[in-house]
Design a protein that fits this description.
The chain is α+β, with helices and mostly antiparallel strands. The protein is built from eight helices and 14 strands. The strands form five sheets. Strands 1-2-14-9 form a four-stranded antiparallel β-sheet, with helices on one face. Strands 3-8-4-6 form a four-stranded antiparallel β-sheet, with helices on one face. Strands 5-7 form a two-stranded antiparallel ribbon. Strand 11 and strand 12 form a beta hairpin. Helix 1 crosses helix 8 (291-324). The longest helix is centred in the C-terminal third of the chain and has 34 residues, at 291-324. The relative contact order is 0.18.
Length: 325
């Protein structure tokens, strides 16, 4: 029976919409599953239906509907909403949808229609499942502090109107996930990198190479190795030990050439790590959910998937055993 692993998670840097953390004692399949769940399975709210009453702007109805769908909405309470496919209502209700109304008429020479013009309205007299959730648009960048201050203050532009032009519409936001449509993805990016893929057996390397060859390896190391002048031995730099640098392909190639010249085989010294167990994650949210909550919800989703799979396997196994007996 394989030995059980007990993964650990350590947060190294955190802000409202960015998170860096390290997971240890796991494998690449689990790390990639977590990354994919953050992208595709963490539910958010986004505008899904648009009923346009009047539109005299330069943009077609479909164009405006598409832009509305990509406006990020505060989804911290998305878990409280039902999926529309699971709700008991016929069309939409306060348990599965959020209603917005936009009614803008340009009385000046020019006017911007922005996310600030989307006004949330109650459905059947209620604001959300608990009648206390204001699902507001995220009006600007939640990561950049300076370069988009002006954009954040004026909101996300939907259209530009000239004098006497008008847009009047009703928009319905619903709960969904990224695997249904990109507008429901809660992250701008999420990625991970594993621990160093290549290491050297330094004891063996030092015993095989002469001084000139060690100097040559040091010159090619690009900050991953150092040469102790007293002992004439190659050692790892601190930057390599903490993961800020890695052994390059050029260094591997040159070290292999020197080992062959010395009468040894590169496999005696060069170790390829085919089963990394340490992964460094970077998560940047879109602002709809705090970055730390994205990770927590992704872990909850992953846990539920595995629990459901375990239950299905148990039922299948019991049925097969019953057939045999």
């Amino acid at each position: 029976m394989p030995e059980g692993r007990f993964p650990t998670l350590e947060v190294t840097e955190a802000s409202e919409n960015e998170l860096r953390f390290t997971i240890q004692r796991t494998d690449a399949s689990v790390a990639n599953a977590l990354r994919r769940v953050m992208i595709a399975d963490v539910p958010t709210l986004a505008i899904d239906l648009v009923q346009i009453g009047f539109n005299s702007s330069p943009l077609h109805d479909e164009f405006i509907s598409h832009r509305l769908g990509l406006i990020p909405l505060d989804s911290r309470h998305a878990d409280k909403y039902n999926y529309s496919r699971d709700c008991v209502c016929d069309n939409y209700c306060s348990l599965c949808a959020v209603l917005y109304r936009l009614d803008v008429y340009c009385e000046e020479n020019e006017r911007l229609v922005t996310s600030y013009d989307l006004l949330m309205e109650p459905i059947d007299g209620r604001y959300g499942p608990t009648n206390n959730e204001a699902v507001l648009p995220i009006h600007g960048s939640c990561v950049a502090k300076d370069r988009l201050q002006e954009d954040a203050s004026r909101g996300i532009i939907i259209a530009k109107l000239k004098r006497d032009q008008c847009i009047r519409l009703v928009a319905i936001a619903k709960k969904g996930t990224g695997k249904e449509h990109a507008k429901w993805i809660p992250v701008a990016t999420t990625s991970f990198k594993s621990e160093p893929q290549i290491t050297f057996r330094l004891e063996k390397l030092n015993s095989i190479l002469d001084h000139n060859a060690k100097v040559e390896v040091y010159k090619w190391s690009d900050g991953s190795l150092k040469l102790d002048k007293r002992s004439d031995r190659l050692e790892y730099e601190e930057a390599f030990r903490v993961g800020r640098t890695a052994i390059s392909g050029d260094l591997v190639r040159r070290t292999g050439e020197l080992l062959i010249e010395a009468g040894s085989h590169p496999s005696e010294v060069i170790v390829y790590n085919t089963d990394p167990q340490k992964f460094e994650f970077f998560v940047e949210g879109t602002g709809v959910i705090p970055a730390k909550d994205i990770v927590i919800r992704a872990l909850d989703v992953l846990h539920k998937k595995l629990t459901d799979l375990e239950a299905a396997v148990r039922v299948e196994a019991q049925e097969k055993i019953a057939e045999i007996l």
